[in-house]
């Protein structure tokens, strides 16, 4: 075959060519659908017309092999890419499925956690309500019990305070004597020394009268703060009514009870101070009489005449201060009472000065 023959080779894929010679001596199509023919009128290289040489066939077979290898590589590459795409799609699908599953799991876990939290909150609220209800019931029961018990405690406490007051009242005279008397005793003194001692003791008595009068009033006013009335006059039934009205729970009821006890004690103290003031006033009057008697005896023993000596005027003035008590200075304009008191003082001083020089059986002071 020459070069012109090789240039006229025609390759058709998949279309089996007809035998150009009209006989079965032509080549059969290849296994993969390739057919080979020649253009021109035929001719051959050392063979029958229409046949290929061995070298030509080798080249064709080599080309066919290369073609099949290339096609195989192409198919393998396509299959690889398809497999890779399928694997990626499958991996993406699995990842999406896992993500969706995880999201569903998280959502379900969150929903379950919310349900658990909601149930726990409901349980907490229910428990708190139950505790509050129980506490209210307990508080009501405790208050009711306090209202039942405290009236009995009030009776017992009242008896204790009354007994203490009775003991204090029994020892009142002794305690007052210790507060007002001095050493040596008046009975051991004579003359001017006795008169000075009487005046000093009377001054102490008057001081304690003022102090205890103020204490009595202060204690009584504190006692009135409990209910506005004298606690000594509050009956047990009135105490129950006050206890129920002033308390809303057991603690408040006990506070009301303590307030009553303090008020009752203050009322008894006011009463004790009042008794002390009464006894001190009696003592003050007794000292006035004692001073008059001692002064008369002193003057009689000295045989003074009726003339008004400076000593008599001094004694009369001192006697007036004992009878009338100390006078607080006033910055206001003197009243009619002040003027009357001044006139009375002058008259008293003049008369007593005269009487001190006479024999008097008894002198009574206001």
Topology, please?
Elements: H1 3-7, E1 9-13, E2 34-38, H2 54-170, H3 172-180, H4 191-224, H5 236-246, H6 250-302, H7 310-324, H8 336-355
Antiparallel strand pairs: 1-2
Main structural class: mainly alpha
The amount of beta strand, in percent, is under 5%
Q: Could you give a short account of the major beta sheet?
A: 2 strands, antiparallel
> Biggest sheet, strands in spatial order?
1-2
Q: Which residues sit in consecutive blocks of at least 5 with pLDDT less than 50?
A: 1-46, 304-308, 328-333, 357-366
Number of strands: 2
- Rg computed from alpha carbons, rounded to a whole number of angstroms: 69 Å
Overall morphology: rod-shaped
Helix content: over 70%
Through-space gap between termini: 182 Å
Mean pLDDT level = 76
Q: List SSEs in N-to-C order.
A: HEEHHHHHHH
- Compute the number of helices: 8
Write structural notes for this entry.
This protein has 366 residues and is an all-alpha fold. Among the domains are: 3-52, no CATH class; 146-325 and 340-355, no CATH class. The chain contains eight helices and two strands. It has a two-stranded antiparallel sheet. The chain starts with a helix and ends in an 11-residue tail after the last helix.
Write a concise synopsis of the structure shown.
The protein is an all-alpha fold and 366 residues long.
């Amino acid at each position: 075959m020459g070069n012109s023959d090789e240039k006229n080779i025609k390759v058709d894929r998949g279309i089996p060519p007809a035998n150009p010679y009209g006989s079965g001596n032509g080549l059969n199509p290849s296994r993969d659908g390739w057919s080979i023919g020649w253009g021109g009128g035929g001719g051959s290289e050392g063979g029958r017309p229409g046949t290929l040489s061995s070298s030509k066939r080798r080249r064709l077979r080599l080309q066919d092999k290369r073609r099949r290898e290339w096609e195989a590589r192409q198919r393998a590459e396509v299959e690889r890419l398809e497999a890779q795409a399928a694997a990626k799609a499958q991996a993406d699908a699995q990842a999406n499925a896992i993500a969706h599953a995880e999201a569903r799991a998280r959502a379900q876990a969150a929903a379950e956690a919310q349900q658990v939290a909601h149930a726990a909150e409901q349980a907490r609220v229910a428990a708190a309500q139950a505790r509050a209800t129980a506490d209210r019931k307990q508080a009501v029961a405790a208050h009711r019990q306090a209202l039942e018990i405290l009236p009995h405690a009030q009776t017992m406490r009242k008896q204790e305070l009354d007994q203490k007051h009775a003991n204090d009242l029994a020892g009142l005279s002794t305690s007052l004597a210790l507060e007002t008397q001095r050493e040596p005793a008046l009975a051991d003194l004579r003359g001017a020394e006795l008169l000075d001692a009487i005046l000093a003791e009377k001054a102490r008595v008057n001081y304690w009268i003022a102090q205890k009068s103020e204490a009595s009033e202060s204690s009584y006013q504190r006692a009135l703060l409990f209910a506005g009335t004298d606690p000594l006059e509050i009956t047990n039934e009135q105490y129950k009514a006050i206890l129920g009205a002033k308390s809303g729970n057991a603690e408040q009821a006990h506070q009301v009870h303590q307030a009553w006890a303090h008020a009752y004690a203050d009322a008894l103290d006011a009463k004790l101070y009042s008794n002390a003031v009464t006894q001190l006033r009696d003592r003050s009057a007794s000292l006035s009489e004692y001073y008059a008697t001692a002064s008369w005896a002193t003057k009689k023993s000295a045989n003074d005449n009726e003339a008004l000596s400076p000593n008599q005027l001094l004694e009369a003035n001192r006697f007036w201060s004992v009878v009338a008590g100390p006078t607080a200075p006033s910055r206001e304009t003197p009243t009619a009472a002040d003027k009357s008191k001044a006139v009375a003082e002058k008259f008293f001083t003049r008369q007593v000065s005269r009487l001190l020089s006479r024999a008097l059986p008894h002198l009574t002071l206001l």
